[in-house]
Structures are given as structure tokens and as C-alpha cells.
Amino acid sequence: MRERAFICDPVCALPYGHNVVGLKYFSEASKPFYNTIIPIASTCLPEDIALKYGFERGFEFYYYNHINIDPINKIPSAHSLSSDYDLMIELAIQDMSTIYEKYVISENDALFFPCVDYYGAMAILELLYRISPPKTPFVYFRFIGVMENATSIGLSGLPKLLKDIKKMLAAGYKIKLCAETPRYADSLASDLATFVNVVPYPTHTDMIKKLTIIEGGGEEYKDIFTVVCPGSARCDKGYLDLFDIFSTIRKIDPRQSIKFVVQGLPVADSLQHTSYTNQLYAIPGVKILHSTLSEEEMNELYSLSDLVLLPYDTAIYAFRGSAVFMECISRGIPVIALAGSAFCDQIIYYGAGSVVPEIGSFANEILQYRYVSKPTLITKMYQARHRYSIDADYAFIQWMTP
Amino acid sequence: MKTLFIDHKVHAKTRSSDFFLALLRQNFKTIDVEYFDIESQNKIKALNGPRVYDLIIIWQLDFLAPVFISLGYPTVVIPMYDGSANLPFEHWMAMNNASVICFSRTLHERVTAAGCRSYLVKYFLQPCKESQLPKFDSLRGILWMRRPQDGLNPKLIDRLLGSQITTLHVHNAPDDGNPRLLKDPVYLVKSFPVTESRWGVTSNDYFLALKRANVFFSPRMSEGIGMSMLEAFANGLLVIANDDAVHNEYVANWVNGILIRPDITNVFELNIQEAKDLAYNGWFGSVNGYQEWLDTRMHLIEFIKDTMLMPMTTCKANPHFMSAILDAYSLGADAYGHFLREHILSRHSIEHNQKIALPLRSLFHKLSCNSSVLDAEGLFFGTSPKSVANKFGFDKFDSFTAYLSSQMAGFSVTHNEFIKTDSEIVLSIFCQLENDDDNNWLMLIYINQTLITQKMLPKKKCDFTIEIPVLKGASSRLDVLFSFIPSQLDFINIELPILKFFSVHLLEI
Predict the structure, then answer these.
(1) Which of A210, B15, B254, B271 maximizes the CB count within 10 A of its CB?
(2) A243 and A155, same structural domain?
(3) Is residue A400 part of a domain?
(4) ipTM of the complex
(5) What confidence category does residue B320 fall into, taking pLDDT thresholds of 50, 70 and 90?
(6) Is residue A310 within 8 Å of A325, Cβ to Cβ?
């Protein structure tokens, strides 16, 4: 067993969203492989959240230009607000050096980035490059297709990052790579001319509860079938398509045997979509939740979901996975997604839901699920989860093994 | 807990807040009710006697909230969309120490963006039984003609639906109290027969007509709660309403009702089966919605009670603050926003209030400005380097002069000696009246929200000086506010005195 794993996520700054959960899941999944696990988030993550999960806070927030966060507990440094590329790199290297020195990181340790961000990754590469390969720790980069592209100069960071990784691999540095979706892994493998594993979320005990609860139920069909759109409501997640989907169903189902629950837009965005959200809110049987939910509230939301909709923008999600999908399959909740996103391949492969060709097809598909008997659906989702958890857990073990 | 419920005087008649008051009475031991009349500005007893209330609940008169908040009262505010939709963001930011209950999602969004603690309620009335739903063998309309001047009248219905409507009942009871002559060409329709009712001793005629109809035309462009619309939903009528809140928060267009825009919507087809389906969706929405409202009530009461736990301001307002804020409010959104920004919301608090949405914080950052420093040379209205005129209620004229442009005007100055001085000092403002004015104008002068002095303006053209005593120990920043009150109370038609302001000096007496 190796000494220590530092699970690093400089983007983990908000008390909600998938970064906190991802850091938690991967920290716990890494425990069998290391004597000590040290998760490190951004210094902007509220202290109470960091304490609750046992996260260290070691990284400035480098992405004010990309993510609209309120630095609630911390005044941002002038460097972190800059759009100067060199300053940002310098800031990230400084943070990484501090961590490196504080923990006296050695070749017996590992640095693990569960959702790679550009400046965090560039900083560790730069730092390691100053040390000879045998003396460096193992570095694990997991690509999810989001923040590895984010630079302060507006250009995609990925080509530069891949170029540096390629150089480091050639020089003998111990770097292991994976991606969240098969499509993204294949794309990276082609760019880097090396193996890139596929590592989705490992299953976590939080996720197991749903099917256990369903098992206890006896009735054939539920009186109320709840369709949920979880995750931060965003326009690229199909928020603006929901009215068409919900209103079509409501016309067919006036007695509201199907209900909808959706998270609202964040305040800053919602002011620009007031009329649209009003119309969503006006549809009988639609409940709009707050834009940000705690982990507990998210778990509660999943526990009442019979079906989850993922009408994501296919261009933006062309290579990306969906944290919501991985939460759903682990909990045995079927999903319906719009064809084109990278995670649709996984939905089809595991039989974890349906993929439809256009927004107009969602309503019909929802009705299909509404009238699948509970035992049939449970059996189907059991099988999907079974296959997924074997793959996901094994993929993680295989990837973690040096 | 002793609670005061403050409501608009008109609701003492219409009883439209009664349902809420009843809910409060079920859950709070002692509720006193005071009705306030904006026009007569009757004194609110709670502000003029010993402190006896633990909680203040303000229905619709949300501009009163800062007065109670500044006195340190736990305050709950229930604003209405139709009255408060156009108020500036400063209005909501001034309520950061209050709890806000919104019956409109649109308002809730604005209030939340301004950093307030807000609870969104979707109210519904008890629906009729399914067996009592109206028949849809023909389309029978009903319109309570409350705002005919906005175009919501029989003529509009004729233009949109023509002979698809078989009959229309008009409840001829406008909000202005003047029933219209339906034979007047402005209202006369030919495509369908019209029946008419007015308020009588009871409201029976209206409710009987509602029961006979199956298509309800919402009577106002926007609503606070929309009681008549909710009544229509509860009775299974198809609701057709203007596309604004709160209508568009209850009517999903062509799902459970129809939204129109009277100025641009063209004639549309409405077949009877479709009308029936839409109406059914609306009614069933109220079946579930009513249950949800019943379930919500306890959470709502908890939300109100939790107001007691909120941190209260320690600022002590003076009795004149209320008349100043009312003056500013009556001058419109701009003057009111300026007043709040200058007197309640400091630049510091706006910039550092993390609860306020980021786009708003940057907006207010641009709007707020520093006060000018007053020294031995004085300050000038206009655009000189030491100008004070970049404040509200003045239009710049030249480099040293500004004209009064509204009934409320003000500026801020700082002077380091205000605190230290032992001698009596006055702010001396040099002015000129440019016209002969029959009106007797009273000028109220406030410093830091305290009424310092009042003065009648001259009636003939002249130069004059306004001298404002500065109290010993005043803070180094003085917020000076003029409120001009005419002897005629016809605020709409009155013209302001043509008053020029030149300079401000500090004099020791």
C-alpha cells in the first residue's frame, strides 16, 4: 500500500454542485489503496463544508472569469482576479509548491485530480518537471471535459495541457490518465498516443439506498410518477426545453399522475429568464426548487425520482459525461437523454434509460416509462446498476493500480 | 407575541387580505390591525406611542417597512406585484433585515436577487366539486370590467373572439368607481349579446354570473394575488388573461388557460373541446394547488416566526423619517431609489452585502457616489471641481448653478470640522427664485433624516439664502434633503417653482 493520496480539486469552491460530491466519492474510493487520504479543495470553499467532509483548503480560485462565485469567506487576491495567463500559472504553482512543501510529498505518494482543471494540472506538471522522474509521486489525471479547457485568456487550454503531458510521459514521469466517458477517453488516447482508461464515478454507499427502498414496494404502478431534472439548472442542460416537454405531458395528463420537479436557475441568470420560468411555474404539477441544493437535499431529490430527464446540449456534451447520470444509474433511476451527448453511449450500453432523437420525443418516452410496471423497471435498473458498478469499480481499481 | 398587522385602508372594505389575517389569528395570540391611508397619511399609532409590539407585519404598504426596520422591529413584508413591480432594487435592499412573503414568483426573484429573505407562496382558493364544473356546450364569457381604460373591455373580447362567444356578462364595476355606459361606441359590441351587473348590497349578481359562464376574462393587466382569476380557476372556467404577473405565473399559455396581450394579440380560434380541456387543466391545477397551499401554511407561519431570530438594525430612526420616505416614494421610482441609496443603503453595505446577486452589486457600485468635501471656499452646484450637484433632484445648468427638477432634492457634504467645533455653525445655501409663483411652497429641510427646519419660499422673484443650523456633534457627513410641499395638493398638475441653487458655504455664528 502506498503512503498518501492527495485528492486535488482547485475548482471545488462552491458548497454545492458535483465538485464537493466528486471529491468525497473519489477520496473514499481511494482509501483501499493508500494509508492516508488528503482531499484538498479551494480556499474559497466555505469552512463549514470543508470541515464537514474533512477537506483541506489549499488552492486559490483561478476561475473567476469562468464561474460566477461569491467569495463568501475570502477576499480574492489580486492575482486570482487577473486575466493575465502568466500570473495565474504563477499563482497555481505557488499553491502547489506550498502543498508540496507542507506535506513533504515524495515518490511514495500520489496526486490525484478527479476532475482535471487547467491551472491545477499545469502547476503540478511544472513543479514535477523540476524533479527527476523517479523522485516524483504518481499523478492521476481524470478528464471530464470541463475545466481542463478553462484559461484566463479565453483559449482552450487542453491542447497545451496535452502537449505537456505527452512531453512528461516521454520523459518517464509517472502519469496515469482516464476520462469520464469512452468517447472522451478514445479522443484523448488518439491525441496522446497512449492508453486512456474510462473511469466513471465509483459507486458510493450514498447511492445504494434507492433500489433498496423500491424493493419494499408492492404496487404495480405508482399513483404519482415523479419526473425530475436535477443538477444546477442551466440553459446548456436543456432548461429552456422543459416547457415544451412538461406542457405536452400536462395536456395529455390533466389529472397530474405525472409530476415534475426541476431546479431553478441561479439568481443571476434567472432575472434574464423571468417570463420563461413563470411559464414553467404556471404549469400545474411542476415544482421549481432552489438553484442550489445541499448534498442532503440532492439525495432527497434522488430518492423521490422515478425518472430523470437529461435534455443536455449535444454540442457542449459531445465528449462530456453527466454526474447526474452516474448518480442515477448507481441509484437505479432510469434517465431519458437527448441523443448526441457522450454519456448517451453509456446509457445505451448499460440499458440505464432511453436516448431520444429530439426534444419533441421526450413526452412520449416519459409516458412509456410511466406505464412500465414497477417490478419490470426495478429488474431492468438492477441489471443496469449491476453491470455499471462492476465496470466503474473495477475501472477505478485498475486505474489506481500502478 | 404581540403582533401588529398594517394594511392599506382600502382593504378594510374589499377584505382581500382577510384570508391571511385569519391565518395569522389562528397562529398568533394577539393581532392588532391598523389601516393606513396613503393619501391622508394618518399617523400609525405604533410609531407614536410606547413600544408594545414584538412583530410588525405589513401587507402591501411595503414602503413603510424601512421605517419599522430602522426602529429595530422584527418586520414581515408582503408586497404585491401590481403595486411594487416597478420599484427600484434599492427598495428591496432596504428590506434586508425583514422577512418578505411574495405571492408572485417574479417579485420573489427580484427580492431574492436584492439579498432578502423571501418566501414564495402560490395561493389557491378552494375548488368546486368536479360535478359542479360548468358545461361547455357554448362559450359564455364573463368580464369584471375593473380597468376599462386599459383596454380590457367588451370591445377587446369582440376583437379577439367575435361570434365564437355566444354571450358575455359584464360586471360593470370599475376600480375608479365609475361604471361605464356599455352602449357607448367605445364599449359597444355586435358579435354577441351582453348582460350587465353592478355591485349591489351583496356580490351575488357577480357570483351568479360567474357560475353561468365558462370563459373568464381577467380584469386587470397585472395582479398582486389575482383573487378573481383564482376564483375562476376554482370554478372551472377557462381563464384568459394579460401576459404579465401574476397571471403568467398561473396560466401556462394554452395549457391551463390563455395569455393575451391586448395591444398585439390577433383574433384566434378557440374550439369548445379545447376550451373545455384548458379549463379542466386550470381547475385540476387548483385542486392540487389548494391542497399545497393548505400544506404550506405551517411552513409560512414558521417563516414568519423565524423573523424574530433575524439580526436587527441598531439604527434609531426619528419620527420625521416616515414623512421623508413617504415624500420620496410619492415622487416616483427614481427619487425614491435615490433617497434610499442616500439615506439607508450606504455604498459600503451595497458592495459588501454578499447576499445581493453579483450583477446588482456591480450596478450599485456604478450608481453610488461620494459626498463632496466642504471647505472655506464652499461648494458649487453645477460641474465645477468642487460641485455638489451630481445628486438627485437637481438639473445642472452651468458650471456653478443647478435647477430644482423635482419636489425632492438632496446632496451630501462632508466636513471634518463638524464634529470638533464648539461654535454654532450653519450651512448657507445661496438660491434664486426665478418666477413669481402664486403657490405657497413650504420647504422642509432634513439633515441626516432629521427635520431641521422648514421655510416658506418667497412668492416673488428674488435672491435669498437658506440657512440650515448644523447641530453640535453632528457626524462629518451631512445628508441634506429638501422636500417641497405646495399649498395646492394637486401634485400631478402642479409646476415646480423655478429655483436655482448656486453654492453652499459653512458659516460660524
Answers:
(1) A210
(2) no
(3) no
(4) 0.84
(5) low
(6) yes
